[in-house]
Amino acid sequence: MAVAERLYARALFQAAEEQGRVEAVHADLCAFADAVAGSPELAAFLSNPEVETAAKVGVVGEISEGGDMLVHNFLRLVAEKGRAGQIPGMRDELQVLVDRAQGRVAVELTTAFELSDDEAFSIVAQIEQASGRTVEASRTVDPDLVGGMILQAGSLRVDASVRGRLERLRHELVTR
After folding, report:
1. Model-level pTM?
2. Domains of the chain
3. Is 172 exposed, middle or buried (0-12, 13-18, 19+ CB in 10 A)?
């Protein structure tokens, strides 16, 4: 994520926390970012550097009207600063902050084969025990892994796949 996205998300989170409105702010920003993601035209409009800032501020203001006032003001400020195209990234950064504050961690578990629910539960339980947090895991299958798994939690990536081991071995052989 870009530094600006992290900074804007942190500022919004702190303001929402001070006002005791983290959940409402989070929900409204997610709804707005989902609307942007669901409309390629809107995303292109907000990201287009040739579109006047005032037009972006107006559109963002209209769309967010009636929602949480903190989010409404935040979105207008972001558009005024020329960062309207980065709102989905800001939402992702805000999600990380909300998860951290609530003791949750989002994890993506990629395996070579589909895991049974019991296997996935066992892995998630081990992660929860090691991290001391509640884990929300999403699962994907990548047959190219051959075996093993890749665990992705934020910027932390643990590659325990056969493909990853083979690549590390190949790299080691080549660099020696």
Report:
1. 0.72
2. 3-99 (1.10.520.20), 103-175 (no CATH)
3. exposed
Residue 119: half-sphere exposure toward Cβ, Cα within 13 Å: 10
pLDDT averaged over the chain?
A: 92
82: left (phi over 0), alpha (psi -120 to 50) or beta: left
- Predicted confidence at residue 154, as pLDDT, reads 76
Strand 104-111 vs strand 134-141: parallel, antiparallel, or unpaired? parallel
- For residue 88, give Cα distances in angstroms to 62, 74, 120: 18, 13, 29
Q: What pLDDT does 106 receive?
A: 87
Distance in angstroms (rounded) separating the CA atoms of residues 118 and 150: 18
Of the candidates 151, 145, 149, the residue with the CA atom closest to the CA atom of residue 167: 145
Instruction: Give Cβ neighbours of residue 37 (< 8 Å, ≥ 6 apart).
Output: 43, 88
